[in-house]
Amino acid sequence: PAFSVILLTTLIGVGQGLFLAVFTAQSYALVDLLVIRDARAFYTQGSLLALLFLGAGLLASFFHLGRPERAWRAIAQWRTSWLSREVIALPAFMGTVFLYGVAHLSGWKPALARLPSGIPVDASVVLGVIGSVLAFALFLCTAMIYACLPFLREWHSPLTVFNYTLLGGASGFTLASALSAHTSPELTPFFVVCAIII
């Protein structure tokens, strides 16, 4: 594929993986499996960094379009085209990551519900769940663009979806390791182990 396609999928995958890493830490902290000393800074900086990678990937996507001024038309074929679905999923995911970061930065976390164990579910948790679903949907859409092309024999495989998901997850958790070393060093071993496992 064109270099811009490689750049696009790599940058967006890192952004997706980083968001998943940040929300995984929040989920573990929610049930007291992790202690995060400066959670607000970690979640906010993680969201911002994920958005920067996603935005850079989106920018890279314009370099392999023949007619960038017609990019908006890509949405019209969402029923049959994985590319159209990707074009819808990416901004939805970016918007959710933005709202997730804003919820943590502003401290706006009204409890919307309680789990049976009594753990409060606030707005950031709901946004994190929605963002996680969108991240996996985006992995699926991006991978299926290539997996469904029979003339690309190396990629015409169901393993392409797993490959995109694992590579994005591993790179995102690796970046989370570096971020946590700066913001919340107590999380670094957790992210390093997760990155190695993924």
Question: Can you summarize this structure?
Answer:
The chain is mainly alpha-helical. The chain is built from six helices and two strands. The longest helix has 28 residues, at 3-30.
Distance between the termini: 25 Å
Radius of gyration in whole Å, from Cα? 17 Å
Helix count? Answer: 6
- Largest sheet, if any? 2 strands, antiparallel
Strand and helix order:
HHHEEHHH
Give the spatial strand order of the biggest sheet: 1-2
What does the average pLDDT come to?
Answer: 88
Q: Can you give the helix content as a percent range?
A: 55-70%
By oligomeric state, this entry counts as single chain
Globally, the shape reads globular
Indicate the proportion of strand residues.
Answer: under 5%
Give me the count of strands. Answer: 2
Regions with little confidence, pLDDT below 50 for 5+ residues: none
Overall SS class: mainly alpha
How would you characterize the overall build of this protein?
This protein is mainly α and 198 residues long. It is built from six helices and two strands, in the order αααββααα. The protein has a two-stranded antiparallel sheet with strand order 1-2. α1 runs antiparallel to α2, α3 packs antiparallel against α4 and α4 crosses α5. The longest helix is centred in the N-terminal third of the chain and has 28 residues. It starts with a helix and ends with a helix. The model has no long low-confidence stretch (mean pLDDT 88).
